[in-house]
Inverse folding.
């Protein structure tokens, strides 16, 4: 079972930032592929969560006018690997995220979560840093 104290569900980035300011100890929940496991194992029991998964303004990929590629943090691994901009300009990133978990994890896991998780197995972080 999941043991958390409060679940906040903001409807905008601004509201999410305000909630984080009001509850600095709260954890940010997006895809949840890592954090929910830790909660279930009791490692984060009683924590507060700010669920940003429904903030669509944090999803998507686009090629900017200056040639840089913008990957918003809630973009799933599946969306990263399938996106035409990634396939054309950074195919190795698509290959890297295709190695993360199984299809279910790639559908729910986000590139922002993978980077912010800070684990050595963050497959996308190394590739992104190499292209920086």
């Amino acid at each position: 079972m999941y043991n958390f104290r409060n679940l906040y569900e903001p409807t905008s980035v601004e509201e999410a930032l305000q909630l984080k300011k009001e509850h600095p100890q709260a954890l940010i929940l997006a895809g949840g592929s890592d954090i929910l496991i830790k909660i279930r194992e009791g490692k984060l029991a009683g924590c507060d969560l700010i669920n940003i998964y429904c903030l669509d303004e944090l999803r998507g990929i686009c090629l900017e006018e200056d040639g840089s590629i913008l990957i918003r943090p809630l973009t799933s691994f599946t969306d990263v690997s399938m996106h035409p901009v990634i396939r054309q300009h950074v195919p190795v990133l698509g290959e890297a995220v295709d190695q993360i978990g199984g299809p279910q994890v790639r559908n729910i896991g986000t590139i922002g979560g993978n980077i912010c998780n800070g684990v050595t197995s963050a497959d996308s972080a190394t590739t992104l840093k190499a292209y920086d």
Observations:
- Helices lie at 13-22, 35-40, 77-82, 84-89, 91-97, 103-108, 111-116, 123-131.
- The first helix runs from residue 13 to 22.
